[in-house]
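Q: Make up one entry.
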Amino acid sequence: MPNKLELSGKKFGMLTVLEDSGKRKGSSVLWCCLCDCGTTTFASSTELSVGIKVNCGCIPKTKNNDYIKQQLMKPQMNNTSGVRGIYLKKRKGGANRWTAVITLNGRQYYLGAYRNFSAAVKAREEALEHVGDSFAEWHKEWRKKTKRTRGSPDPV
């Protein structure tokens, strides 16, 4: 059995880890945490480290959008464009395109392929403004609005 992570004293969002509760959630340690609002709550190692639980529930999940947006802005380690969700799709004949995507709740949303980098970044930033409960509906409407035919100019 691997050694448990020592999280006592560490802060995750609004939660400060106090101690190991001695309980388990599956194979994960259940930690006793103190929220900034003063409430004590329990969270598993996974919930804390992945960012699933960032408060005791005093702020509804919809208010956590700023935290989610912050995480969506960080480029991944293997990113070569410098902007998360933007990558260069190389095509035969040299007609390369910058592709913009955003991943939410395990689903990747395609935001278009653009001739220039700044147009792709602009499309992704626009999508980030709509992250929240109604993002899927916004994306569906956006796709209808920006439907393009082959050879048409970038929609942004």
Notes: The mean pLDDT is 79. The chain has two domains: 11-58, 65-147. The two ends are 53 Å apart (CA to CA). Strands lie at 11-12, 15-25, 28-35, 40-44, 86-89, 97-104, 107-114.
